[in-house]
């Protein structure tokens, strides 16, 4: 294609401001789909519908034709957990549509996304969406964009994606204001691997942005970071239906297939070059993504273990960024230790396992990756291990120092919720960095920045934030590295025996409160026995919280075993069935359900 007629752009927005609806409108207007196909739902982010249509699960990029221009609309994952994927998608574009809800104004993710876009030198076109709403205040939002973000919004496009207002203006603004890509068609091939996914018909499909040179069917290419070579067997684009093309040239975005079996062989950010005429150097910015949040996933019904394994394999076909390995727990039986890019990523996988694979699962407390510095003598080299599972914690005597990951969080909130938010952050060991007010009048909001240990955020922080602000605050974060922390492993003991699935790593200062909470819950969940059962939370040998389940009175059990023969037999049968799911702690049998309930409540 003629490079001067190409425009590559993405749409950035806070959740629910109308990104998908606008994308659908642009596709509809430029003829990619008919109104009838459209009414089946949102094209860019509805997995089930897309599967049915046999298009592709992740129609990540759509090519639009508009007045002789080739517009490549790149969809970016909407959440901070996928920050690296987002950054690669943005690196593949020259501009962005900034969609802001005319009634809501600028929110935390709007800003986080805009800053990233600015870092990639994008030309940003503000679009004030939902102007059809009675509560719309386009003028106020325009000012907000100028004041808070510092963008010139005098030429912001006013639109309603839902009612189809301002769509041609948006398309024209893309052509007029976003610059064409730069690149040299005759230089050696250099293409960025932006994303990849598994398609049941095509195998692994790779989304690429060609920087220089040309990609063609039959070409032998090399993945510079992975060091592998592949033969390209398809080249094309999505409109959003798949269309094969003779080539993709400098400046273009499209897909290739190369008989690759697993998504894990393709690394986002890798450089694809010609095997015979390679580029002198790979593209900058390659990064290998690592899971940062780990937890155990166990089937509630032990019989579902194999089904869970298969489901995890299937999900991994499309998401090489999460990891899993088998784990066995005395309390919960067999399951998997899984690693995720963040809490939301965890929730997405959990949700898909439940909804798409119909699994009933129990999740252990999420844990971050700790760096354990082990003690060593002078002539030994320093030894640092990464800990993903509290169960693997080394003997405290062998630990010299523990480091934990920290994040910088930005929260936007109406003023009235500021007090409780500051308290929440403070309780979670937060360090306040900044507090300002943005916007004016009804749109005024406080913007607070905190440094927080990630460990404190994975533990119900979102839920608390949501409930204390009734959903009015928005939250965004990025990692800022590891710092030393006064961290301990807290064990929960039932009848003097530790319950592995309930142990956790926590800050010394919050251990007692968390330990007490868990003991109280277990006290209500564990059935009474003939004797007293102590439930304790302990750090090393030191008990920091304790509850006691009182003993049953003798005559109560006596009554159970009385009665007629059939009733007695039924009771025994029931007990036998129950036995399989009982876990023994000392001489205490505890139904697995008690642990599950304790974790669910936590
Ligand atoms: P995520 O996919 O969750 O990130 O949200 P999104 O930004 O893609 O927003 P989406 O397009 O799903 O729109 C969110 C809601 O706003 C939906 O209920 C849309 O129907 C509605 N919506 C989108 N555009 C408009 C608009 O112009 N006017 C009105 N009234 N509603 C709109």
The main β sheet shows up as: 8 strands, antiparallel
Mean pLDDT: 85
- Strand arrangement within the widest β-sheet reads 11-10-16-7-8-15-12-13
* Cα shape: globular
Parts with pLDDT < 50 across at least 5 consecutive residues: 44-59, 556-562
User: Helix count?
Assistant: 16
Q: What structural class results from the helix and strand content?
A: alpha+beta
Helix fraction, binned, reads 25-40%
Whole-number radius of gyration? 28 Å
Ligands: guanosine-5'-triphosphate
What is the terminal-to-terminal distance? 56 Å
Strand content: 25-35%
Descriptive report:
- The chain is of the alpha+beta class and 602 residues long.
- Helices cover 28% and strands 34% of the residues.
- An 8-stranded antiparallel beta sheet has the order 11-10-16-7-8-15-12-13.
- A hairpin with a 2-residue loop joins strand 33 and strand 34.
- The longest helix has 18 residues, at 508-525.
- It is globular.
- It starts with 5 loop residues before the first strand and ends with a helix.
- Bound molecules: guanosine-5'-triphosphate.
Keywords, separated by commas or semicolons:
alpha+beta; eight-stranded antiparallel sheet; 34% strand; binds guanosine-5'-triphosphate; Small_GTP-bd
């Amino acid at each position: 294609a003629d490079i001067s007629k190409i425009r590559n752009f993405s749409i950035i927005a806070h959740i629910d401001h109308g990104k998908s609806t606008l994308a659908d409108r642009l596709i509809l207007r430029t003829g990619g789909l008919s109104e009838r196909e459209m009414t089946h739902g949102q094209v860019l982010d509805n997995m089930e519908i897309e599967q049915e249509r046999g298009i592709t699960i992740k129609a990540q990029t759509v090519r639009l034709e508009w007045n002789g221009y080739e517009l490549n609309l790149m969809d970016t994952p909407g959440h901070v957990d996928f920050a690296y994927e987002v950054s690669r998608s943005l690196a593949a574009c020259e501009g962005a549509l900034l969609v802001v809800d005319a009634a809501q104004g600028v929110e935390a993710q709007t800003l986080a996304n805009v800053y990233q876009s600015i870092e990639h030198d994008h030309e940003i076109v503000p679009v004030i969406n939902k102007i059809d709403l009675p509560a719309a205040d386009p003028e106020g939002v325009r000012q907000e964009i100028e004041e808070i973000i510092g963008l010139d919004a005098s030429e912001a496009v006013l639109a309603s994606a839902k009612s189809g207002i301002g769509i041609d203006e948006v398309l024209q603004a893309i052509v007029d204001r976003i610059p064409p890509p730069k690149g040299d068609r005759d230089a050696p091939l250099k293409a960025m691997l932006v994303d990849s996914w598994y398609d049941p018909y095509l195998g692994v499909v790779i989304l690429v942005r060609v920087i220089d040179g040309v990609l063609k069917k039959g070409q032998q290419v090399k993945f510079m970071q992975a060091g592998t070579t592949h033969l390209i067997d398809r080249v094309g684009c999505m409109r959003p239906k798949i269309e094969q093309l003779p080539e993709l040239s400098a400046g273009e975005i499209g897909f290739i297939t190369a008989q690759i079996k697993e998504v894990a062989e393709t690394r986002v950010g890798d450089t694809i070059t010609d095997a015979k005429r390679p580029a002198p150097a790979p593209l900058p910015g390659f990064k290998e993504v690592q899971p940062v949040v780990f937890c155990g996933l166990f089937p509630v019904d032990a019989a579902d273990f194999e089904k869970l394994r298969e489901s995890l394999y299937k999900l991994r076909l499309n998401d090489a960024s999460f990891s899993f390995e088998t784990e066995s727990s005395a309390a919960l039986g067999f399951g998997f230790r899984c690693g995720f890019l963040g809490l939301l990523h965890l929730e997405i996988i959990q949700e898909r396992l439940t909804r798409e694979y119909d699994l009933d699962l129990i999740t252990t407390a999420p844990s971050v990756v700790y760096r354990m510095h082990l003690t060593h003598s002078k002539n030994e080299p320093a030894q640092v291990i990464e800990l993903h599972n509290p169960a693997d914690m080394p003997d405290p005597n062998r630990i010299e120092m523990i480091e934990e990951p920290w994040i910088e969080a930005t929260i936007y909130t109406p003023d009235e919720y500021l007090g409780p938010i500051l308290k929440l952050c403070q309780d979670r060991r937060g360090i306040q960095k900044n507090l300002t007010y943005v916007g004016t009048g009804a749109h005024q909001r406080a913007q607070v920045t905190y440094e927080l240990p990630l460990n404190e955020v994975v533990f119900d922080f979102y839920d608390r934030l949501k409930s204390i602000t009734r959903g009015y605050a928005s939250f965004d974060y990025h990692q800022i590295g590891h710092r030393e922390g006064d961290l301990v492993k807290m064990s929960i003991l039932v009848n003097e025996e530790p319950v592995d699935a309930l142990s956790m790593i926590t800050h010394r200062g919050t251990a007692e409160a968390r330990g007490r909470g868990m003991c109280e819950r277990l006290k209500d969940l564990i059935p009474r026995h003939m004797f007293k059962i102590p439930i304790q939370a302990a750090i090393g040998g030191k008990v920091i919280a304790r509850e006691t389940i009182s003993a049953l009175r003798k005559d109560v059990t006596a009554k159970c075993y009385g009665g007629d023969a059939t009733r007695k037999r039924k009771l025994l049968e029931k007990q036998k069935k129950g036995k399989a799911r009982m876990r023994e702690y000392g001489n205490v049998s505890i139904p697995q359900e008690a642990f599950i309930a304790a974790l669910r409540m936590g």
